[in-house]
Amino acid sequence: MVNSASRLLLIDDDEANRLTLSALLEDEGFLVEGASTVEQGQQCLFDEPTYDVVLLDWNLDGTSGSALLAPIRNHHPGARIIVVTGDKARLSRVSDVDGVFQKNDRFEALLALLPNARR
Question: Which CATH architecture has domain 7-113?
Answer without folding.
Answer: 3-Layer(aba) Sandwich (3.40)
